[in-house]
Amino acid sequence: MKIAIVGMGVAGGNTLRSLYEKNAVRPSDEIHVYEDRLTPGVGLPYQPDDDRLILNSFSMDVSLNPDDPDEYVKFLEEHYPGRFGRYEFTPRMIFGEYATQRFAPYLEKEEVQWIKKRVTRLTPILSDHHPDKLRFCVQVDQNRPGEIYDAVFLAVGHPPYADYYGLKGQPGYIHEPFPVSHLLEQIDPSKDRVGIVGSSLTALDVMEYLQESASFAYPLTFYTLHEPFATVKDTLYEGDEVFCTFDDAWIEAHRLPSGKIALDDVLAQFKKDLSDSQIHLDYIMEHFGTGSLYEVHQQLQQADEQLLKFQYYIALLSPHMTAIVNALDDRGRRHFFETYRPWYEYFHVQLSKVKMEKIWKGYLNGTIRFVREIVVIEPAKDKGVVIKTAHHRTYHADVLINATGFETRLSYAAAEDPLIHSLLEADLMMPSPQQDVAITWPGSQPLSRTYGVVDNLYLSGFWIGTTQYPNNNVQRAAQQGARMVDSFKKNNHR
After folding, report:
1. Local structure of 431: helix, strand or coil
2. Would you state the torsion angle of the CA atoms of residues 127, 483, 64, 55, taken in this order, to the nearest 10 degrees?
3. Cα(150)–Cα(137) distance, rounded to whole angstroms?
4. Does residue 29 sit in the same domain as residue 156?
5. What is the number of domains present in the chain?
6. 263-276 vs 305-317: helix crossing angle, rounded to 10
7. 182 lies in which domain range?
8. Angstrom distances, CA of residue 30 to CA of 12, 13, 26, 155, 341
9. 149 shares its domain with 251
10. Model confidence over 122-165: pLDDT tens digits?
11. CB–CB of 167/175 below 8 Å?
C-alpha cells in the first residue's frame, strides 16, 4: 500500500509515529512524507526563531507521549538542566527541538521516504479495479505528473494569515509576522511609526520582540477592535477541590433518544459544577470579563483565588469539550458556537504573566500604547496605512504588522492556498456550517457532496477546529495523529 503524509509538524509527526506504534505498517508499504521545512516536527509554530517566543502552556502540560506525561519535563531536565520548572512557559523553539527528537527517528524507517517539497495539489483518481474506491494524486509541481497513493493523511497545519483589511502587498504592511527575528529587516526604528493590528498571542510575541530588540522613536501601538486581552495565567491552582463532572460516562448518561445531548443539560451541569466548587461566575465576569488594561493590571498586582480556581476548572473541562460538542444536537451545536464559543475561548486562552508584565511596563513608560475600536484601516498615499476609530480619531502607521490570526473561512483560504483550492475544486471536501471542513468523527475523513465520506483521506489541524474543539494545543494535535491512524486501521482491516 502506498501512503502519503502531507506535513511533518506535530500532527504529521505523530501520525507517522502512530503508524508504527499501532502496528499499522506492513513490510510492503511505501510511506512518503511531504515536508518542505528542513526540520521535522516543528511546523510553523515551533520553527527556529527568537527564544522570547514562548508556549502558552506549562511545560508539564505539553508532552507528546500519551504514555509519559512528563516526557517534555524530562527532556528539559536533560538538555536544559536547572533552567525550566514544571510550571514554567518554555521557548517555542525548544519545544520544537523536543518534537524533532521525538519524530525524526521515524523518518529513518525502511518504508519511509522524506520528500522535502510542498504539496500544491491533490486530486481523486478512480480505481479501475475498485470503482467504488478512490486513490489520490499528490503533486508538488502542477506542471509535472504526481504520485498516486492509496491513502493520504493531511496534516497541513495552519492556513494562510487573514487579510481582513485588504492590505496585502501594500508598502509598509507586513502580512506574515513570523519569523519575528526577520521583522527588523523591514523596519527603521529611528523614524518608523510601528503598529500591530490585533492583540492575539502572536501580537504579544511580536510586541515583546520589538520592545526588547530596539529603541523606537515612536510608541509601539496595538490597534484592536475592542478591549485587547484575555485573562492572565499566573500559577497552578492548588486550593480546595474543584469538581468537573463531565466525562464520557456523563455524555452517555445524558443522551436523548436521538443519540444526541441537549445544550441545556450541559449548561445545567456546568452551573452545578461551579456551585459545588464554590466558583462564583458573576464575580469573575464582573472583575475579569472584559480583557481591559485595568483588569490585566489587577491580575498582575495580585492573584485572585476565584479566577485561579475557574481557570483550573476550564483546564479540567477542556479535554472533554470535543466529545461534548460532537454529542450536541444540531440546534445546540449552532447555539454553542454562536453564543458560548467566544466566552469559552476568552477564558481558555490565557496569557503569560511574565509577558504581560513586560507589556504593562511598556504601557506605563510610554513605549507602548493602545488604540481601540478601530473601524477602518486603509492604505496611505505613499507608505504605510491610515487607521480610523469609532471615535473619529485618525492614526498613521509607517509599518503595520498583521496579528489578526489565520484565515478561518475555507473559501477565502482557497484563494491563497493552492492545496486547499484543489481539494475544494475536486470536491474532496466541503465547508461545515462554521466554515471549516466537514468531517466524520472520530474517523476524521472529509465529507463530500460527490463522494460522501472520502475513504482513506484523513484530515487534522486547524481546518477541523469546530469538530476537534478546541484544537489549539500540541497535545490535541498529537492525539489527532493517533486518531487518524485508528481510522486508517479500521478502514483497511489492519
Report:
1. strand
2. 90
3. 9
4. yes
5. 3
6. 140
7. 173-229+353-402
8. 16, 16, 9, 18, 41
9. no
10. 999 987 766 678 999 999 998 899 999 999 999 987 888 999 99
11. yes
